[in-house]
Amino acid sequence: MFQWTVQHIVFILGVGLLTGIAAYTDSRFWKIPNKLTLPFFVIGWVYQLTFWGLPGLGDGLGGFALGFGTYFLVFFVSGGGGGDAKLMGAISVWLGFKLTLWLMIISTLFVVIDSVVITAYRVLRYGTKRWKKQYLATGKTDERGKPIMKKETMEEKRARRTLPFAIPVVTATWVLMLLNGAGFIKDGQLGPPRAARQEQAQVDQ
Asked: Does 183 reside within a domain?
């Protein structure tokens, strides 16, 4: 069950500010600036060291390797936005390995649901022909029946996106915090405080 401690309050405020500002800037400007992600990245390490010590630094490093590593690979392969990977890198330091893994699962689920709903809506509203023209870039195919792609401008790419990257990540982060605080996901940043975990470990031994 959720217990209010200084560590919990700092975590909620830190992650809340990071995700809230990222959701605004990505929705308003389609950009997640470095001046947002980099300071929170550094503060995340300070948070881990202050409240969890060296094990916290290790947990933050594991979360960063998983979150940033995965999204940087996606960015490198698909050429997506670098700010997306930096946002995940900043969040993952705060969350640690376990919650970062849950975040990736939940946010991916939200992206799939969003894509299905938005696609169905656009097909029903605009028709299959117009939808294919937009998502195949040219709407034409070659002699083999394969789509003929064209180079797109940044504005055209944005027009084809269903939601800014930050929205499903932020939504998933807050859902994850609620699940962790309510005890549905054990341990994690909103689980028992450090002292309680150490006492429980001694009892288990």
From this structure: yes
